[in-house]
Amino acid sequence: MKRSSETKRRRNVAEEAEQGGGEDPAMWESLDRNFRQVQSVLDRNRSLIQQVNDNHQSRMADNMSKNVALIQELNGNISKVVSMYSDINTNFSSAFHGGNNGHEGGGGGAGTRAN
């Protein structure tokens, strides 16, 4: 449910900006692409958290030891998401305050971290 409402909110923000003077569709496409990459990592985190919970509830030693690697991946993904949001913020700000070049060059920065 939450994901659906967030997707609708992002679309509404993008549509309003385009109608209200958002003259650079490429910037909005880049922003949308970057948010999709963030969402992909967040979806993976949701899966990891479920696996960690399942392993913990099983109380089996082997499953508990698997949680170490799962939590390490989760921790790395959280750092990745923070970095991706930082890049999105920088690119978005640059597009509005420094000309419409925020999606050029740096726009792929968030995308490279999602891989």
TrEMBL record:
Residues 23-103 form the Protein EARLY FLOWERING domain. GO terms for biological process: entrainment of circadian clock; positive regulation of circadian rhythm; rhythmic process. Its main location: nucleus. Keywords: Biological rhythms, Nucleus. Pfam families: Elf4. Residues 1-29, 95-115 are annotated as: Disordered. The keyword Nucleus applies. It is found in: Nucleus. One of its GO terms (cellular component) is nucleus. InterPro entries: EARLY_FLOWERING_4, EARLY_FLOWERING_4_dom. Residues 99-115 have a biased composition (Gly residues). Belongs to the EARLY FLOWERING 4 family. This is Protein EARLY FLOWERING 4. The gene is LOC108846031.
